[in-house]
Specification:
By secondary structure, the protein is mainly alpha-helical. The protein contains four helices and two strands, in the order E-E-H-H-H-H. The chain is 45% helix and 9% strand.
């Protein structure tokens, strides 16, 4: 989900919220619920988000960690494949102190 008036210069990963200047602000919880994702599926996506953006791993290590942690999840696999196929790179995570839009 990309917020209105957001400038997006990189690829926004699936399942996440993007605001401001291509910054990921978290999961699109409402969208996932409306799309019929189960609590377990949302948990896997939430954990994958934390591995990708909050644990401090380099990108290739984070992707490998997601694959190892959730080998049976089609949603985790979709996220990993999306990131690997991205030619422009993915949107970075919002950090404290970064101006919000």
């Amino acid at each position: 989900m990309v917020a209105g008036l957001a400038r997006v210069s990189r690829d926004p990963p699936p399942y996440f919220l993007v605001k401001g200047d291509s910054m990921v602000f978290g999961l699109n919880q409402v969208g996932l619920q409306r799309a019929g994702f189960t609590e377990e599926q949302r948990y896997v996506i939430r954990r994958a988000y934390k591995i990708l953006y909050r644990k401090g791993y380099r990108l290739h290590h984070a992707l490998r960690r997601i694959e190892e942690s959730f080998p049976a999840s089609p949603h985790a696999r979709h996220l990993v494949e999306f990131v690997r196929r991205s030619e422009r790179g993915i949107c970075p995570h919002h950090r404290r102190g970064t101006p919000r839009s």
